[in-house]
Write the structure tokens for this entry.
Amino acid sequence: MKRIFCFLLVLTLFASCEKNITFNPSEPVFKYVIEGGLSNESGSCKVIISQTKIFKDNNQLNPVSGALVQIEHNGITYNLTEGSKGVYEQSQLKGVPGDTYKLLVVVSGENFSASSTMPQPVPFLDFTLQASDYKPSRVTPQIRFRDIDGIKNYYWFQQFINDKLQRQYKVFNDEFSSGQEISSYLVFAPYNQDHSEDIIKGDRLTAEMHCIDAAVYTYLYGLLNADGSGGGAASANPLSNISGGALGFFSAHTVERKSIVIP
């Protein structure tokens, strides 16, 4: 058995990641990758469809054109339009906390579906940086928010440097902190070793907080551990909430963001 590395580059909503897919090279398996979602902000509805390559090819995914992509909400079906290759958008659909959204993708005769319920938003209280938390190769600002008591809550923080989405992200649940104020650190660090992407004074760091449902949390948590980098055992593929055999996930989530500038 061989192993390929599938590099999922998701443009605006989702963090880039590497994960392993085990397959027999004598019987290549081509998987569709569907990553999409919407938030409680206008213009956020986007679905990106691609396809894996065989072992001998490079790690880039093939964008998939010509798919039928729809999202159903309260009995109304919205068709997503393909802009750039493999990227499908709907500018008029704005998510409502508490509502459920259903995704349907039809491509080359295959049907894939998913649903996600947008949680209620949780206030993002603060995003701060102490002088001792800054080094050019590693910056660790603190986030602070207050969990809502009485319901299960799940959180996903994406990270940006000068508006560029970073590969790092962080997920939380409230298993041991229901109703409490939660403080934690995010790690901003460049990936190369030549210091060309060191974080310098004047750079703007942004933390984007999403309240997500349980299935999306399970996927993102599994993705962190897909190559063992999340501190858990490596696994072949995280558990997707998309039925039909595709990789990826569909998320209806809230969004709040805060930024700081390196002094």
